């Protein structure tokens, strides 16, 4: 994906496309699975410091560029929100956290079940994580 396409995504989310934001978004687009701040720090080692990456991820979360995921690893993971405007529940899906290899997988074709909550509560995000062993780690334990 070229810089103009990345800038278009950021502009659609009302985020000013700075060079740091373009770098972070490019890495998130390239990622095959949700990534942590530490993952991005390694990927952007010579381009950005940890504080800049953190500020960018915080802004991206606020502007619905990314979904933060709490997968039980004690480290937030981030994945792209594919909606061109604001994220909604239909954008969210189930995640699987492998307890052995510590990888988080997206099950994008499995929707989060609808849960009825009491009147007056306004949900903004749902975090549905299944923990266990991925197929590769399951095969190794046999």
What does this structure look like?
It is a single chain. The chain is α+β, with helices and mostly antiparallel strands and 142 residues long. It contains 5 helices and 6 strands; from the N terminus they run H-H-E-H-H-E-E-E-E-E-H. The strands form 2 sheets. Strands 1-3-2 form a 3-stranded antiparallel beta sheet. A 3-stranded mixed beta sheet has the order 5-4-6, with no helix packed on it. A hairpin with a 5-residue loop joins strand 4 and strand 5. Helix 1 packs across helix 2 (19-30) and helix 3 packs across helix 4 (50-62). The longest helix has 13 residues, at 50-62. The protein is globular and about 45 Å long. The termini are far apart. The model has no long low-confidence stretch (mean pLDDT 87).
